Amino acid sequence: MPELPEVEVLVRYLQPLVQDKTIRRTEVRRARVIAPTTEADFEKELTGAKIIGLIRRGKYLVFALKPARGRQTKLLVGHLGMTGRMFVAWKKTALPKHVAVLFDFGKDRFVYEDFRYFGRLTLDHSALDKLGPEPLGKEFKAADFGRALKRFNQAIKVKLLDQSLVAGVGNIYASEALFRAGISPKLPARRLTDQQVRDLWKAIRAVLNDAVRRGSTIPLSFSEGTDGLFYFGSPEGSANFYEERLKVYDRYHQPCLRCGTPIERIVQAARSTFFCPHCQNVKGAAAKPRRNKKA
DNA sequence: CACCATGTTCCTTG
DNA sequence: CCAAGGAACATGGT
Length: 295
What we know:
DNA-binding; alpha+beta; 4-stranded antiparallel β-sheet; 26% helix
């Protein structure tokens, strides 16, 4: 679940459930996810600590903690990697297979589960310093974004994944934003015109905002029976929310929703990119003619 | 067996 | 120091 919108929805769900909870005990089942914090430090710092806040920064979750003894607030930084999940459940509820970390709250507990263990839940907050502006915040300015892009020859799609330029865009929403802006993913970053920079700036915000809005309308409940923890790829089907909200990502060979041209897939920096070769022509500008086709 | 997967970091190479 | 490309991480699904 890992791009900005998913993390945002998760934080909104999680925040009231962890706010003011005291961690009675920690259990680290996979030490790699707390690195570089050691298990001894993790336990020492967190046991007895109270969670006094939870916010999102880029794709990170930032927990503010009031330590058992100390006065100084500590930060606990979470990241879901590709497959991480976090939730709060009754202790009688069975745990999933790949639990990485548990916090005992008394009646219930916080669970961080991640079957690929690419994520993190650590006291090391240095990753936050490398993040660029929040795309949905007012500190994200088209002019700054454009200036930053001027430094790179690399394809714009690849630079959208650079968290130091703008924080929170991942592989899915990078394709989505470029489609929305009508810009080729292959266009070298420094070649974007000022107009394209503005279009892309706007498209990033629109695509992320839409996803947060839609994600917020989906029940996040850990309904009994299913292992379903998230709105993401609904466990029981329900016409698959995931498919219908995305306009280009994972739609290889399917007709472009705007012009009917088959969507193409290419690989950039070892990641898949999906785009419409007509609506997102490198030469830009010209692409307008549309023969709308029923999908 | 082959290839693919929402992410980040480390290691080369130029 | 910087840009860029690729492998690695770990566990699946198809």
